[in-house]
Amino acid sequence: MTTKIHLACDGAGRVLAFVLSGGNVNDCTRFEQVMNALRVERIGPGRPRTRPDHVIADKGYSTRAIRRYLRRRGIAHTIPERSDQQKHRRNRGPRGGRPPTFNKLIYRHRNVVERCFNRLKQCRSVATRYDKTSTSFQATVTIAALLQWL
Hints:
Nucleotidyltransferase, domain 5; 7 helices; two-stranded parallel sheet; alpha+beta; two-stranded antiparallel sheet; globular
């Protein structure tokens, strides 16, 4: 009955890539799909750009697998650690490892993503999901994203 939109946007809040999932799916399970869908064409010759400069995400994306994926690809990231993860690390003592770095000044820019969602939901058919099939809803979200770019 519900649908989640997982997306990546640029610094101006324009949609670069998105993936749809069911409403009961965790955000962290769709992270790599969104990153793999990310393709920004270059003005001149060359392959499209697939790696962002920096990833800012909320606590729903705070997993060891996502942090490892970002480090492996050389992508800087700012993701706050969940309180249960902090507690487990402290309980392990010295074996718990170092806490991940977190910059509050950079994390303030995450509101760009929230504003991007708000602009997408200005389109009433995206906000209420009138479409019955996932393909038609994906087309509706694509049109709403294109209107942002225009």
